[in-house]
Amino acid sequence: MPVSISWLPAHTPADLHGLLHALAEEYPVRAGEGSAADLQVAFHCVDAPGTYTIDRTGTSAIITYDHPSRAARALGSLLADIPAGGAQYCETTPLTTLGIMLDCSRNAVMRVEHVQRWLRRLALLGYTQVMLYTEDTYEISGEPYFGHLRGRYTGEELRTLDAYAALLGIELVGCIQTLGHLEQIFRWPAYSPICDYGGTMLVGEEAAYALIEKMLDTISANLSTRRIHIGMDEAWALGRGQYLDRHGARPRFDMLSEHLQRVAPMCEQRGLQPMIWSDMYFRIGSATHDYYDVTSTIPAEVATKIPQGVQLVYWDYYHTDEAFYREWIARHRALGSEPVVASGVWTWSQVWYNPAQTELSAGACIDACRATGVKELIFTLWGDDGGYCDFDSAFAGLAWAAERAYAHDGDLSRLPARFHALFGVEYDTIVRAGELTHPLSSPGLLWDDPLLGIAMSLTALPEGWNWAMLAERYRMLHAELSTQARQSDAGDLRHAALLADLFSRKIMLRSALVAAYDAGDRAGLTAVRNAIPAVLDVLAQLQDSFRAGWMRRNKPFGLEVLQIRLAGQQARFRELAVRLDEYLEGRVSSIPELDGRVEQPQPYGTSYRMLATASTIL
């Protein structure tokens, strides 16, 4: 149980009252004298950038802090009984911004109440900023098809979240798109006139800028911060669709510069301070269009066209070498301003938070930021391909990242106690469930079709591995997680156990199916046929579990995608049963999908459309 804390309003700075009352909604943080068992806490604001100190004596403690976020992290420490007994404890971070970016555009639009739960926990971890990534999932007056049927946030909801975040010492920043990643609005004919191609906006089209004006008005009116992220990343089709037809080919650097020079003054007129993802500059300067191409060249005249006041955001979730981050930070600084650095807590194309990939890449990034004096660092949580990750499990990664940001000596020994006090579950258990993200599985085993077997056919197993070993690994994980299967504030362990069970069963069934079919083993095929009902039962339980988690965290829109996919899985296992019956009864002489296998593994995509079928998905 967390330590109980009491505080006296008359002796507490006014800017902490809202924070303390908000935390009291879930944690034992009480105003007043409290009970004899409570730890009496007093607060003093001091000029010590990035630092908080706890002086604890018996049943009282004094917290000195420079910013409400540090006071909140100090409370998180005390809830975890850090430091225990009579002692002094101090933490410092060199970062002025420690933030996250939460993807609310890949179907999963988090409910306001759940965002507030996240904000409370983020405050106790010491985070200072939250970006809500909303491509079209915010309501714009007079634009009924913008975010239609997507769970968009209303202005009132944004204002509610903004005010709540402010109580907790967290800056809520709008993170939108003003060039690319607008596929969802371009599905509606109303926006066809401003579409270049794919998800990219038609640069130079006045109607496009009229819409951008409305975007900026909406964010400006509903969020109190003057900072705004206006996107502009991965605009693959820039100048290659309607623009090319109308105006012919133009240098893409020129188009990007002209577009930014139109949008930046719009921000300035509203008192907004914009930032953009930086990748398009590096991609256009690369012969291979690679963001991380070491031969990429950005001409000096292009750099000078980046409007003053526009901050670049360097995102990198992949490199594990600190030296690479250092070089790219230097390259961003050479473009004329101090960058924001965006690492990632891996939630995209995953069923659960991926600790291994996060710690390798984010760890190197944090070290590079410390070494180079970066002041602003955020961690992105993407939901690519449908937002089917249990996002709450990412708190293990966010807690780990915050610990790294504050513990300059790399000492993470206090992390388990802090995590248990704030989330009510063992840190190691959530990380152990991260075995679901083994490179050979998630999401391949979730969406792999039982007859086509695209993932299992094309996956190259590392030396020393075979599918039976991986199936056993998941069987053991299922047994382990089943003993503590429950919903927690950091992920639903029952859901994780079901996923492990499904993965094990799918591997064993597919392996047995292929082996028995190739050998003409009728008894083996009969055993496969008899195993299908158990897989269907797990799929049914998993569908219910996905729904429960989705509705607990998110608005209902987008759930239909997961339900269609999982119902399709069940239909395909039933189809496999029918096909085996036909084959075993002699009504057909073969099963063509099993005859057409390619035995040469090769890389393949991780999206549902790449794994579920080789045919066209309408």
Architecture overview:
There is one protein chain. Helix content is 45%, strand content 13%. The chain is α/β, with parallel strands linked by helices. It has 4 domains: 5-92, N-acetyl-beta-d-glucosaminidase (Double Stranded RNA Binding Domain, 2-Layer Sandwich), CATH 3.30.160; 93-141 and 316-422, TIM Barrel (Alpha-Beta Barrel); 176-309, TIM Barrel (Alpha-Beta Barrel), CATH 3.20.20.80; 438-612, Up-down Bundle (Four Helix Bundle (Hemerythrin (Met), subunit A)). The chain is globular.
Class from secondary-structure proportions: alpha/beta
Contiguous runs where pLDDT drops below 50 for at least 5 residues:
none
Please state how the strands of the largest beta sheet are arranged side by side: 7-8-9-12-13-14-15-16
What is the C-alpha radius of gyration, as a whole number of Å?
Answer: 26 Å
Q: Give the oligomer, counting copies of the same chain as homo and different chains as hetero.
A: single chain
CATH superfamily of the largest domain: N-acetyl-b-d-glucoasminidase
Overall spatial form: globular
Number of domains: 4
CATH topology of the largest domain: Four Helix Bundle (Hemerythrin (Met), subunit A)
Report the sheet with the most strands, covering strand number, pairing sense and barrel closure: 8 strands, parallel, barrel
Beta strand count: 18
CATH class of the largest domain: Mainly Alpha
Number of helices: 23
The residue-averaged pLDDT reads 96
The end-to-end span amounts to 51 Å
